[in-house]
Each structure stands twice: as C-alpha cells, then as structure tokens.
Amino acid sequence: MGLKPTCREVHRLVSEGLDRDLSLVERMRMRMHLVVCDACRNFGGQMALLRRAMRQLTIPDDSAPGHDAK
Ligand SMILES: [Zn+2]
Fold it and tell me: What is the pLDDT of residues 4-34, one digit of tens each?
C-alpha cells in the first residue's frame, strides 16, 4: 500500500462514498488523487450524476395512493 492511491482504488472509494461515509483517511486519499487525476475527477462527477438519476427513478413511494397507473 503506497502513499498514492491508484486510479482503481479511487474509483472504488468514489463509488463506495456514495453508499457510506468514508473515513477521513479514505477521503483525503481520494481528494489528493482527484486533484492530480482528470480521469478520476470525471469518473466521480459521472458517478454522482448517475446516482442522482437512479435515486429519482427508484424512490420507493408506498405511501402514495393511485399506484396502479399505467
Ligand atoms: Zn486516477
């Protein structure tokens, strides 16, 4: 385990960070890498967008009546 995380590790941290809170160390490693790596920065932005879109599509809305449309 080196000081600099690899792109693969950062990709994992980015996607895990959407599901759970990363530790301070994990966040720092990710941030430091994102500063110098355009590819991972783009990846992070796309993941955030994708996740937001997914969430809008999959909101469980059991309380809403009239669920039988369509
Ligand atoms: Zn990278």
Answer: 789 999 999 999 998 899 999 999 999 999 9
Task: Output the CA 6–ligand 1 centroid distance in Å.
Answer: 6
Question: Residue 53: phi, psi to the nearest 5?
Answer: -65, -45
Ligand 1 centroid distance, CA of 41 (Å): 7
Distance between Cα 18 and ligand 1 center (Å)? 17
The string of pLDDT tens digits covering residues 51-70 is 889 888 876 767 766 656 56
Q: Beta-carbon neighbour count of residue 58 at 10 Å? A: 8
Domain assignments of the chain as residue spans, ordered by start: 7-53
